[in-house]
Task: inverse folding
């Protein structure tokens, strides 16, 4: 039986289709529309143009779903609709124009579902999970494979870009301001103060893009990269603008403007907790959401992402 999940994010809207077989989730389809909803805000509210872009993407996915037999569809949103001042009006309008029922999840729930999804395909012991989205960044500390503390920061790769950048590629001064802003946010998180956490488990498009860039430039084949790779990559970006821009275009052209802010967020977090290694998970929020919905509502046996 097949299940579909649509994730309405701040940078992309993504449709994933899974098959449940022998208590496992097998991903059959993973497609996205880059919409950049965080860039359609005015005075904290999502603009009519932003609503139009979201509806166009969702209705395109509706066409895809019309030719596939799906047992159940789940649609949820994160900071893209959660953090706008007109959230309720926006959600009502999008639901009316698309026919989808949208579940707006909290930042804390997002972090917990990140962990739930990632834990199904990674051997977790001790570390810090991070999910760098377009409009928010979730941090969750886990010990002995169990969550300890979590928080959602009101900053992501796209919102950070929108706050400080005036061109497609942020200049050195803008990058410095981004770094300072992220450090200021980290100083308010009690559970990471004066703490050394060796391993980061990273999920989401920003972290996967960093891994692709490290693989391309440094020949890394494992599912992780070192903190030193992250620092070297950022230094390369600052020293060689043209070459680094070409690298971004090769691995993630749709993230040309958000890649550097994402790298800065990852680097500042890793530096703050003295992390040595960043493991990249292919599974996370969407799988966690599906597990939560089916495991909680259908009394199924434990489900696993594959």
Result:
């Amino acid at each position: 039986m097949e299940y579909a999940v649509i994730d309405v994010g701040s940078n992309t809207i993504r449709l994933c289709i899974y098959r449940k077989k022998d208590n496992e989730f097998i991903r059959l389809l993973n497609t996205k529309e880059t919409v950049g909803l965080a860039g359609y805000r005015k005075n904290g509210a999502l603009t009519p143009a932003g609503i139009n872009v979201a509806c166009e993407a969702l209705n395109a996915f509706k066409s895809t779903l019309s030719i596939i037999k799906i047992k159940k569809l789940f649609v949820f949103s994160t900071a893209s609709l959660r953090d706008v001042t007109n959230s309720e009006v926006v959600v009502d309008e999008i639901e009316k124009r698309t026919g989808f029922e949208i579940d707006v999840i909290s930042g804390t729930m997002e972090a917990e579902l990140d962990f739930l999804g990632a834990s199904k395909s990674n051997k977790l012991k001790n570390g810090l999970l991070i999910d760098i989205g377009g409009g928010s960044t979730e941090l969750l500390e886990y010990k002995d494979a169990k969550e300890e503390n979590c928080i959602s920061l009101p900053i992501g790769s796209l919102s950070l870009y929108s706050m400080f950048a005036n061109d497609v590629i942020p200049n050195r001064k803008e990058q410095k301001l981004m770094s300072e802003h992220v450090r200021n946010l980290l100083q308010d998180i009690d559970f990471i103060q004066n703490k050394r956490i060796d391993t980061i488990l990273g999920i989401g498009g920003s972290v996967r893009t960093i891994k692709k860039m490290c693989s391309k430039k440094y020949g890394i084949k494992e599912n992780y990269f070192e903190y030193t790779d992250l620092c070297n990559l950022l230094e390369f970006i600052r020293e060689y603008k043209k070459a680094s821009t070409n690298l971004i275009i090769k691995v993630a052209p749709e993230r040309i403007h958000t890649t550097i802010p994402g790298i800065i967020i990852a680097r500042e977090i890793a530096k703050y907790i003295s992390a040595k290694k960043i493991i990249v998970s292919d599974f996370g929020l969407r799988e966690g959401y599906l597990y939560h919905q089916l495991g909680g509502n259908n009394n199924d046996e434990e489900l696993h992402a594959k």
